[in-house]
Structures are given as C-alpha cells and as structure tokens.
Amino acid sequence: MATYSSRIEAVPAARWTWGRGLITRERLAPVVAGAVLLVIWEVWVRAQLPDFVARPSGIVMAIPSTIATAEFWSGVAATLGAILEGVAIGSVAGILIGVSMGRVREFDWFMSTYIRALYALPLIALVPIIILWVGYQPAARLVIVVISVFLPVAVTTADGTRAISKEYLDVGKMFGARTRNIWFGIALPSATPFIVAGIELGFARGITNAIAVEILASVNGMGMSVFTKSNELNENASLVYVLCLAIFAVGIRTLMIRFRHWLAPWYHR
Amino acid sequence: MNDSGAERLVVENAGLRYGQLDVLADISLSVGISEIVSIVGPSGCGKTTLLRCVGGLNQLNYGEIRIDGQRVEKPLPIVSMVFQHFGLFPWKNLWSNIAYGLKLRHAPKEEIDRRVADAIDLVGLKGFEKSYPHQLSGGMQQRAGLARALVMEPKLLLMDEPFSAIDAQTREQLQFELLRIWDRRPTAMIFVTHAIDEAVLMGDRVIVLAGRPAHVRAVRKVDLPRPRDRSVVSSPAFINLREQVWHDLFDQPGANGARIQ
Ligand SMILES: Nc1ncnc2c1ncn2[C@@H]1O[C@H](COP(=O)(O)OP(=O)(O)OP(=O)(O)O)[C@@H](O)[C@H]1O
Ligand SMILES: [Mg+2]
User: Fold this and answer.
1) What's the CATH code, domain A61-268?
2) Where are the domains of chain B?
3) CA-CA-CA-CA torsion sign (B112, B118, B120, B122)
4) pTM for the complete prediction?
5) Chain-chain contact of A167 with B134 (C-beta, under 8 angstroms)
6) Whose CA is nearest to atom 30 of ligand 1?
7) What's the pLDDT tens digit per position in B33-54?
8) Does the distance separating the beta carbons of B85 and A171 come in below 8 Å?
9) Class assignment of domain B1-78+162-174+192-261?
10) Half-sphere exposure of A238 (CA within 13 A, CB side)
11) Domain boundary assignment for chain A
C-alpha cells in the first residue's frame, strides 16, 4: 500500500518539473535566442539600411519565388548530388587506405606523413589549383569533395584500426581468423565509431569546399546561386540558398549521429 | 577418468621468458583424452601464459607442447578457449558471436544453424539470440563465451578463470552446469582458477603452479565420483583434498615438501 501511494504522488510532481516534458528549458533556449536575434536584425535593417539589404521578413517572403524556379532545383540537385557522390567515393577510398595504414606498419611508414600533412592543410588553399588541373567544370567540385572526405576518413580509420584490442585479436586467432578476417571482421567494425566521426568531418569540409569551387569556377550549384543572387543585389534570394545549405548541413549531422548509434550501439561517448 | 595411456595434450619441459622475466620453467604435464585438469596458482605466476602457449597464442622459448602428437605452433582447430575477459565482439549479437568460429571455417549454413541453436540451448541462453553483449549480464556473457567454445566441439577445451569475473551465486550455478555439459560429452579440459574449491570440484587432477619462474609444485589426483553434484562439496574426501591443495599452495617449499603423486 505504501509503495502504491508514493507512486501516485510521483506523477503530478513530474508534470510540473521543468526539463522532463517535450518543451524543456534546454530546447527552448536556442529558440528564444534565435527569435531575439531575428528581431534585432529586422528592426535594425528597417531603421538604418537600404532596401536591398536582406532582413528576416524579406527572406521568408523570397522563399516561394526562389524555390519555384527551375534554377533552384537544378542547383540543389547538382550540389547535393555531387556532395553525396563525393562522400561515397571518398569514404570507401579512405576506409580502404586507412585500414591498410592501420594494419600494415610498412604501408603506414610510406603514407602517413603525407596523408596527415594534407589532412592538416586547409584544403581550400588547393581549390584554385585543382580547378586549373581539372578545368572549370563540375568534375572539379567532385574531386575536391572526394579529397575532403578521403583525408579525414583515412586518418580516423588508420587510428581506429591500429588500436584494436589484443583481446579481440586473441579471439580471432583462436577461432581461425586469417588476415582478411582480422581486417574486415575485427579491425573495421571495432573502428566504426572513429570512421563515422571521420565521415562526419569529411561531410562538413566537403560542403564548404564544394561551395568554394562553385563560386570560384562558376560551376552550376547552390554556391554559385548564392554568389550571383548577391551580385544582382537580390540578397533575400541569396540567403534562401544559404538557409537551404544550413538545413542540409544540420540534417546530415543529425543523420550521422543516428548512423553511429545504429552501427555501433555499444559505443557511448 | 584419467586414462594415462591416451594423452590428448603433452607439455614437456616448457619454458618461457618475457624479456628479462623468467615466467615458466621446465613445466611438464599431460591431459588425458577425457580428463579435466585444474591448474591453480598465485596471481601473476604464469597460468594464463601457460594456457596461451597451449592454445598456440604464445610461443615457448624451450620445450615442447604436443596435442594428439602434433607440435603446437599456432592455434589448432581442435582446441577452443574460454577467455577470462569474455572477449565477445560488441558489434555482433549473441548468435553471431557463437557462430563466429564455424563461419570462419565455412561450415554449411544448416549445420551452423543447428549447432549454434544447440549450444545456445546448452548454456541456457535461448531467447537472447538477437541481444548484443552490452545488453547481457556478466554471467550471460560468460555463458556465451562458453557456448562459442563448445560449438566448435573441441577435443581440448582451455578455460582461463572463466568464472572469476562473476558473482558467487552465478558462479556456483555455472560450475555445475559446466560439469553437467561435460558429463554429456566428456572432452579434455584445462581449467585455470584462483579458487581451490573450484579446482577440486572440477578436476580429475589438480596441478599447483608456483614460484618465479613458475614450476609444477604439486599434482593431486581427485578421486571423487562423477557425475558430481552439490553433495560432493561437503564430502570428507573433498574437504581433505581442498586442505592438501591449500598446503601445497601456501606452505613454504621444503617445509612440508613438494609432494608429487
Ligand atoms: N605480454 C607480456 N609481456 C611481459 N610480461 C608479461 C606479459 N604477459 C604477462 N607477463 C608477465 O608474466 C607473468 C605471468 O602472467 P600471467 O598473466 O600468465 O599470470 P596469471 O597466473 O595468469 O595471473 P592471474 O591469476 O592474475 O591471471 C606476470 O608477472 C606478468 O607480469
Ligand atoms: Mg590469468
């Protein structure tokens, strides 16, 4: 009886506690901060700046007319398509080279210095050179995304597969694992949290560099539209594209976290 | 149970060093075809090292280990091991962890299905096939480690303190389950443990390792009837043996002498 009554008391108490329901202080805070920022922006532009400067209400109003154009959809398809394709190619290549570096010491000796040097370099410095090599065309964008993803994935995969625990290795050997089984059956899966982190970083760098190529080489895509709309003094439309890029980037981040939970449910950061 | 004529495992004058550290010195022992040999010894004396050598995971510096007459230089398919640390793969569910060895050996799918189901049934984990190791208790994980070894139907089973990371109740339960499983299908087994009770309960013989480098200080024959159940533990023979092994372990060598039977 005593436990029963204490359970009844617990329910209304929980209902009135901040931080347990759908609307929590933690979730409300960024919404409030954003709203305040938007209001300040809106008021300031209206009061002080010329008409063509973007402001929140203008951006919202520009959404229908911007996304109703064929240009918008072909730009979105071109940019996102290239990023996804580049991430796929860069991840596979990065995983293969990374696991070789992680598991074969001699290979690591040859590769590690250069891969790590390139990894540390801001790749955007190479964008003009790669455009010259590949030409002013979409292939340049794909190449830069592939490299942007390849480098972090190779580095994290190498680190993750090098550090596999002796316990797993012993089990593998005891039950007859060959080198191939150790690489792909033990080293890779135990390194999945590292690899996913590498892909996530590669995504972020890939998006940045893809936009840079589009602007510098006038390759059709969202980045180029941001640039041309802004040049046409159509800042509101330009920012609609930026907004879409931001949504894409945040969406990818959320998906990658889910992806890691799904691939490596045992791993808690 | 100790058919001295047919030995599955023979260890002859085995010695091993880790760098400057002499770990094993002149160890000789044998295990019969369906014999359980318990090995007890103080922590850090080299029990795991010896077991790893028998399993082919470590190499001796001198001496020889033979299984069915074959020199051990790498892990042999007829040998399985249950690890002190469980060693389940966290990215595989229970079923896949247990099927691991059979899959590596490319057993036919129907055979894998049947043998894995049997092994899971044997260790009492039915219904948890889809669970991942982090969703299982310590006792369940060690059962899985046992099933993974048993499913290979090994001719020599190596157990490295399999129950030491498990609470006392589960441990007692698992001891008798292992005895029951062994009664059904007796195989050669080395059972490494810290616990003298456990060594006597499981073994046909108890080998006491001690010293640095470790050597065989005593061998005790366990003349307790099989199948063994809980009543054995309170029998005078059991208590007497436990006492003897205790002295083998803790008396100063020379004082009561290293007695070898
Ligand atoms: N890889 C290694 N390199 C160097 N020394 C080692 C290595 N593995 C074990 N040793 C040493 O060898 C000795 C025996 O270790 P081992 O693990 O075999 O002991 P153990 O009897 O199994 O101990 P426990 O009962 O605590 O498990 C210890 O002194 C340990 O420090
Ligand atoms: Mg040990």
Assistant:
1) 1.10.3720.10
2) 1-78+162-174+192-261
3) negative
4) 0.80
5) no
6) B44
7) 999 999 999 988 999 999 999 9
8) no
9) alpha beta
10) 16
11) 4-48, 61-268
